[in-house]
């Protein structure tokens, strides 16, 4: 067989394999599991406004409420039991909000409820929580017209949101997965190239 023909043939095979591996890696990176709306309890906090003061208050309340509820449900496996515990302790959540308002010298109305609450689609790692109504603790501060914040209380996933305020850490994690897979693809390409070179050697 002509050396040039062999070279082009091997190069064509190399491109095909590289493309196939790249598609496989990207497909794996974009794979997600969808969670049922009946399998999660969530938290939504509506700030009074988008002012710095109101948003800082929202985050301050978020941190303590999440830490408290996580302690309640961390070792609970039953969805019904977690709901019962949270519902039975709503007054404690109200006390947390009232304390934070007082500590910050803010005279502002608020409301705490446990109900079915509407959420947008959110991604946590490989878990997709589709848009819809979820059982949730809803905290409304003042007029509730500010940027809101949400997470998953049960099973506990709120910590994923804490990296950059209202943005979601899973997005950074997802980018990291894509970068990692891109590196793996490039490594695979070099492996194939070395194999082809060894054939010609």
Write the SSE topology.
Layout: H1 3-29, E1 33-34, E2 41-46, H2 52-73, H3 79-88, H4 90-103, E3 110-119, E4 122-124, E5 127-129, E6 132-141, E7 148-154, H5 169-200
Question: In brief, what are we looking at here?
Answer:
With 201 residues, the chain is α/β, with parallel strands linked by helices.
Structure description:
About 16% of the residues have low confidence. It is built from 5 helices and 7 strands; from the N terminus they run H-E-E-H-H-H-E-E-E-E-E-H. A hairpin with a 2-residue loop joins strand 4 and strand 5. The chain is an alpha/beta fold.
Unreliable parts: 25-29, 163-190
Mean pLDDT: 76
Report, as a whole number of angstroms, the end-to-end distance: 16 Å
Summarize the helix and strand pattern as letters.
Answer: HEEHHHEEEEEH
Given the structure, what is the number of helices? 5
Percent helix, as a range, is 40-55%
By secondary-structure content and strand pairing, the structural class works out as alpha/beta
Assembly state: single chain
Number of domains: 2
Tally the beta strands: 7
Gyration radius, to the nearest Å?
25 Å
Strand content: 15-25%
Largest sheet: 4 strands, mixed
Approximate shape? elongated
Strand order of the largest sheet: 3-6-2-7
């Amino acid at each position: 067989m002509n050396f040039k023909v062999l070279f082009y043939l091997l190069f064509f095979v190399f491109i095909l394999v590289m493309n196939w591996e790249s598609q496989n890696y990207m497909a794996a990176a974009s794979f997600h599991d969808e969670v049922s709306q009946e399998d999660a309890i969530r938290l939504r906090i509506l700030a009074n406004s988008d002012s710095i003061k109101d948003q800082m208050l929202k985050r301050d309340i978020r941190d303590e409420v999440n830490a408290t509820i996580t302690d309640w449900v961390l070792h609970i496996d039953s969805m019904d039991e977690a709901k019962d515990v949270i519902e039975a302790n709503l007054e404690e959540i109200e006390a947390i909000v009232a304390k934070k308002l007082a500590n910050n010298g803010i005279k502002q109305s608020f409301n705490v409820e446990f109900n079915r609450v509407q959420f947008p689609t959110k991604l946590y790692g490989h878990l997709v929580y589709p848009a819809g109504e979820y059982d949730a603790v809803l905290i409304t501060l003042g007029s509730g017209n500010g940027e809101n914040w949400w997470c998953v209380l049960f099973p506990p996933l709120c910590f994923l949101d804490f990296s950059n305020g209202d943005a979601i850490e899973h997005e950074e994690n997802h980018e990291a997965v894509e970068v990692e897979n891109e590196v793996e693809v490039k490594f695979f390409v070099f492996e194939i190239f070395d194999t082809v070179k060894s054939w010609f050697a």
